[in-house]
Amino acid sequence: MLKMKKVSEAESIRVYTDEGLYFGDVEDAILTKNKVESWKVRATRESFLAKALAGAKGVIVPHQLVRAIGDIMIVSKAAAPSYTEEETA
Question: Which residues share a beta bridge with 59?
Fold first, then answer.
C-alpha cells in the first residue's frame, strides 16, 4: 500500500546512501509547481558529506536520485561527491 507524507514531515530525517553510508540530514525540499524537484541535505558533524565537502554546509540532491523515503531517506551513491581518505590527509 502506498503511504502519503507531507513534505514538511521530511525535514530533519536522516539520509543514507544505498551503500549504507550516513549522508546527512534533510534541511528542505525545493518544489516546482506541484512536485519535489530536489532536496537540500545538510552536512552534519559525523556524516559522509562533512568529510567529503570539508567546510561546505551541504548539497542539493535531485529527486531522481532518491530511492526511498520513510523513517529515513535513501539516496543513490551517485548523489555522493567523490571522496577518498587521502584527500583530507
Answer: 41
What is the Rg, in whole angstroms, of the alpha carbon atoms belonging to the chain? 13
Write out pLDDT tens, residues 37-83: 999 999 998 888 888 887 788 899 999 999 999 899 999 988 877 66
> Is beta strand 66-69 parallel, antiparallel or unpaired with respect to 58-62?
unpaired
Three-class secondary structure of residue 48 per DSSP: helix
Contact 58, 74 (CB under 8 A): no
How far apart, in whole angstroms, are the C-alpha atoms of residue 38 and residue 66? 9
- C-alpha to C-alpha distance for 77 and 17, rounded to whole angstroms: 5
pTM, rounded to two decimals: 0.81
Give the whole-angstrom CA distance, residue 78 versus residue 45: 21
Q: Can you tell me which residue has the cell 514538511?
A: 8
- The CA distance from 63 to 52, in Å, is 21
DSSP summary character for residue 46: T
